[in-house]
Design brief:
By secondary structure, the protein is an alpha/beta fold. It has one domain: 3-Layer(aba) Sandwich (Collagenase (Catalytic Domain)). It has six helices and four strands; from the N terminus they run βαβαβαβααα. The protein has a four-stranded mixed β-sheet, with helices on both faces. The termini are far apart. It is found in: Cytoplasm. It is an enzyme of class 3 (hydrolase).
């Protein structure tokens, strides 16, 4: 997958683009639909104010959140996508710096660890996974996240599984 990565308002202490690429590779290992070479996605590392605006405009929620996912293909369309052909936009992700940094501090982990989790989480949303309306889907999505993060050498972000 081709990633278009924009970084605005995140500290230059880490290579966020490299982290996004590694998170994608890990997500691809647990969700093979993401491995289609025709796919592209955009990732925006930005500030809370920008994510709040996006959240208000697209989800009618006037507050920032850690990560927003905007899929452009349904899971069925993604599964049916042939390996050959023109490029296909999978969707967009946006991460809010201040919210992510606050959550990382609350969890006692680095911003990089939390951002990796949110990137994997967002990629799985772009692949059609959900955790909102169905407990079984939520458990499946968490298991995929845990496995993907383990591929990156990162601990279980939920800390409640064996």
């Amino acid at each position: 997958m081709d990633l278009d990565i924009e970084i605005d308002g995140w500290p230059r202490t880490s290579d966020w683009a490299d982290l996004a690429e590694r998170a994608h590779e890990a997500a691809e290992r647990v969700e093979t639909l993401l491995a289609n070479r025709r796919l592209s996605a955009s990732i925006l590392f930005t500030v809370d104010a920008e994510v709040r605006t996006l959240n208000r405009e697209w989800r009618a929620k006037d507050q920032p959140t850690n990560v927003l996912s905007f899929p452009m293909l349904t899971r069925e369309e993604l599964a049916a996508l042939e390996g050959e052909g023109g490029p296909e936009m999978l969707g967009d992700l946006a991460l809010a710096h201040e919210t992510c940094a606050r959550e990382a501090a609350e969890k006692g982990i680095t911003l990089e660890q939390h951002a990796a989790h949110l990137l994997v989480h967002g990629m799985l949303h772009l692949a059609g996974h959900d955790h909102v309306n169905d407990d079984a889907q939520a458990e499946n999505m968490e298991a995929l996240e845990i496995t993907a993060l383990a591929h990156m050498g990162l601990a279980d972000p939920y800390g409640d599984r064996d």
